[in-house]
TrEMBL record:
Residues in Plastocyanin-like domain copies: 72-183, 373-483
Claim: Transmembrane is one of the keywords in the record: yes
Membrane-spanning intervals of the chain: 12-31
Species this chain originates from: Streptomyces salyersiae
Alphabetical list of Pfam families matching this protein: Cu-oxidase_2, Cu-oxidase_3
Protein family (similarity comment): Belongs to the multicopper oxidase family.
Annotated protein name in UniProt: Multicopper oxidase domain-containing protein
CDD domains (UniProt xref): CuRO_1_CueO_FtsP, CuRO_2_CueO_FtsP, CuRO_3_CueO_FtsP
Key word Aminoacyl-tRNA synthetase present: no
Keywords: Membrane, Metal-binding, Oxidoreductase, Transmembrane, Transmembrane helix
């Protein structure tokens, strides 16, 4: 609460330029930093999102039924919190399917307003993407389907209504979508869901005095709402009873705006085994791992019998303009791991995992550049009826992306996985050497992203690219592209009931 009050008093504008001078800021500065280490009680077991049920129909398609609805969820003593969920009151089930499978969905919107479900990280036809052009009206059912055609990865789903994504996500609409394939099944990584393979949807929330979510701070930092309590899979401060020597965590930064710098309380080393788009070629050992909103990472952690250790978020070296205001200096306890007196020991972490990105040597059909600043990309604000450009199916493009105003931004592209070829001309750090679909943009640095567009041409239905800080995205830091088949030209977004 302290942070919000101070922010209101100082009147920082969202996304606006702020001059930090004067004694008032000094007072604010001291109050703004959050440190919850030692203050989280870890009194409930980590809840595991249930696997989504599915039926295989007569055509062989795996069919999932998802119901979006509102409800109330208990996060703390006292009042329950008004929330939204998928097949429940907060978050949704974990969808799971294999590469090569056809999946189909009945997505029923039981809310009193339109929303959508976007399959973040999925390679699929634009009309199935669940973006701003595929909203589902209140009371209606949307039935997308496609064949899974990408390597094993931890993807996710969330709403994507232009202008309302931040609010819809904040109320609780999100879930994991795990894709499996032969490589992941053969990999010998811990893989018993909910036992040694744990989904962890990490979200910060700000609660008001009546335990309701504070959806936005009217006058906040540069990012939108930054909460001071951290939920994992929809509960504050859970613990995990560890029964195996190795545990795999599928971390999703499901926050609207907060950057996490994950590490353990004893600074132990852990192994990064997969990034957004799938398994790394080989594990990378580290003590810290940053994830910006929308990014995922699979890590494997080794435990000793009887020990206790906490997963934390440490201050990050991001160095954005607003520092403490945007939470970069916070230290947050997230989850406690309690190892049993005896642990079943499994295999070691495999030395080789997936296939490294390989686009560096490809012929580049087209280079484009993207400058992110002031809620715009290349000085343009998102417009529903403007397709910014078309890419040619079957080609590789290189996109040069830069964050030009020092606030926290990242960059996400729909439909494809990309390879970070270079950061400011240098070799990317190890955690950026795997397949990505969302990348943190350190201020002023140029990120060269290579991606191949294949299949699913449609000159009239765009995919999105945008900053995944949801307030920025809603404010217009987003654009649209189409994938064109041979001889096709950029078309026009069909007129619809959607606002433009
Ligand atoms: Cu996670 Cu355009 O979205
Ligand atoms: Cu996406
Ligand atoms: Cu941004």
């Amino acid at each position: 609460m302290k942070r919000r009050t101070a922010l209101k008093t100082l009147g920082f504008g969202i996304g606006g330029a702020v001059v930090l001078t004067g004694g008032g800021y000094g007072v604010y500065y001291a109050a703004a930093k959050q440190d919850t280490v030692g203050k989280v009680t870890f009194d409930k077991a980590l809840s595991i999102p249930p696997p989504a049920e599915s039926k295989v129909d007569s055509t062989g398609a795996r069919v999932f039924t998802l119901g979006i609805r509102s409800g109330r969820t208990r996060f703390k003593a006292g009042s329950t919190t008004r929330t939204w969920g998928v097949n429940g009151t907060y978050l949704g089930p974990t969808i799971r399917a294999r590469r090569g499978e056809r999946v189909e969905f009945a997505v029923h919107n039981g809310l009193d307003q339109e929303t959508s479900l976007h399959w973040h990280g999925m390679h699929l036809p634009a009309a199935m993407d669940g973006g701003p052009h595929q909203t589902v009206a209140a009371g209606e059912t949307w039935r997308p389907g496609w064949t899974i055609d990408q390597p094993a990865a931890s993807l996710w789903y969330h709403p994507h209504v232009h202008g309302s994504t931040a609010d819809h996500m904040y109320r609780g609409l999100a879930g994991l979508f795990i894709v499996d394939d032969e490589d992941s099944e053969a990999s010998k990584l811990p893989s018993e869901y909910g036992v040694d393979d744990l989904p962890m949807i990490v979200q910060d929330r700000a609660f008001d005095g009546d335990n309701q979510f504070e959806e936005r701070v009217p006058l906040g930092g540069s990012l939108g709402v930054i909460g001071d309590e951290v939920l994992v899979n929809g509960a504050i401060g859970p613990y995990v009873d560890v029964t195996t020597g190795l545990v795999r965590l599928r971390l999703l930064n499901g926050s609207n705006a907060r950057l996490y710098n994950f590490g353990f309380s004893d600074d132990r080393t852990f192994s990064l085994v997969a990034t957004d788009g799938g398994l790394l070629a080989r594990p990378w050992n580290t003590e810290r791992l940053s994830l910006s909103p929308g990014e995922r990472a699979e890590i494997v952690v080794a435990f000793k019998p009887g020990e206790r250790v906490e997963l934390r978020s440490y201050p990050s070296a991001y160095g954005g303009t607003l520092g403490r205001v945007d939470g970069f200096d916070d230290r947050l306890d997230i989850c406690q791991f309690r190892a049993a007196a005896t642990l079943s020991d499994g295999a070691d972490i495999p030395a080789s995992l997936g296939v490294a990105p390989d686009l560096a040597g490809e012929e580049v059909a087209r280079e484009r550049s993207f400058v992110l600043a002031s809620d715009r990309i290349n000085s343009r604000s998102m417009a529903m009826d403007r397709i910014d450009f078309g890419v040619r199916e079957g080609t590789v493009e290189v996109w040069d992306v830069v964050n030009d105003n020092g606030f926290l931004h990242n960059f996400h592209v729909h439909d494809v996985r990309f390879q970070v070829l270079a950061v400011d001309g240098g070799k990317p750090e190890p955690h950026l050497r795997g397949w990505k679909d969302t990348v943190l943009l350190a201020p002023g640095k140029h990120y060269r992203l290579a991606m191949r567009f294949h299949g699913h041409t449609d000159p009239n239905t765009p995919y999105m690219y945008h900053c995944h800080l949801l307030q920025h995205e809603d404010n217009g830091m987003m654009g649209q592209f189409v994938v064109l088949g041979e001889g096709e030209k950029v078309g026009a977004v069909p007129q619809s009931h959607h606002h433009s």
